Amino acid sequence: MRFLSRRLVMPNDLNYAYSLFGGRALQWIDEEAAIYAICQLESNCLVTKHIGEISFEAPAMQGDVVEFGLETKEVGRTSITVSCLVRNKVTKKTICFADDIVFVKVDPKSRKAVAHGKTKEMLVKQTIDEVKSLNLS
Ligand SMILES: CC(=O)SCCNC(=O)CCNC(=O)[C@H](O)C(C)(C)COP(=O)(O)OP(=O)(O)OC[C@H]1O[C@@H](n2cnc3c(N)ncnc32)[C@H](O)[C@@H]1OP(=O)(O)O
C-alpha cells in the first residue's frame, strides 16, 4: 500500500463531537480512491460503482494531518477494485479503512460500462516504472 496523499483536518471538517465527520472522511476516500483509479487506468471516465464495508477505528481531531494509503485489489474487464486506509500521519494510527471500492469505466456518451483494457500485471509494471521515474531516493 502506498501513501500518496495528505489532508489537514480543518474546523469545517468536524462533527458535533469535534472530531472528523464520518461523511467528510467518506468524501475524501471516494475522491482519493477515484484519483488513484484514474491514474491506474489512465482514464478519467470512471464512476464509483460500489463502496463496501468501512470501519472507523479512531477519531481524527482538528489540526491532525491524515494520510491516504491506496492499493489495487482486483482488476476486471471494466472495473478496478481498490482499498483505502486513512491514518494519522504522525502516530500512524488507523482512522478508517475501506476495503472494497469499485470503479467502472464508462463510455462518455452512452454512460455504459466499457472495457478499460488493463490487467493487474500491466498495472504492477506501470507502477514500478512510475515509481522509478519519480527518482525518490
Ligand atoms: C467518482 C463518483 O463519485 S461517480 C458518482 C457515483 N456513481 C455513479 O453515478 C454510477 C452510477 N451507476 C452506473 O451508472 C452503472 O451502474 C454503471 C454504468 C457504473 C455499471 O452498470 P452495470 O449495469 O452494473 O454494469 P455491468 O453489470 O456491466 O458491471 C460493470 C462492472 O461492475 C461490476 N459490478 C457490478 N455490480 C457490482 C457491485 N454491486 N459491486 C461490485 N462490482 C459490481 C461488474 O462485475 C463489472 O465489472 P467487470 O467488467 O470488471 O467484471
UniProtKB/TrEMBL annotation:
It comes from the Bacteria. The keyword Hydrolase applies. Residues 1-109 form the HotDog ACOT-type domain. Keywords: Hydrolase. Pfam families: 4HBT. The keyword Hydrolase applies. InterPro entries: Cytosol_ACT, HOTDOG_ACOT, HotDog_dom_sf, Thioestr_dom. Belongs to the acyl coenzyme A hydrolase family. This is Acyl-CoA thioesterase. It comes from Thalassotalea insulae.
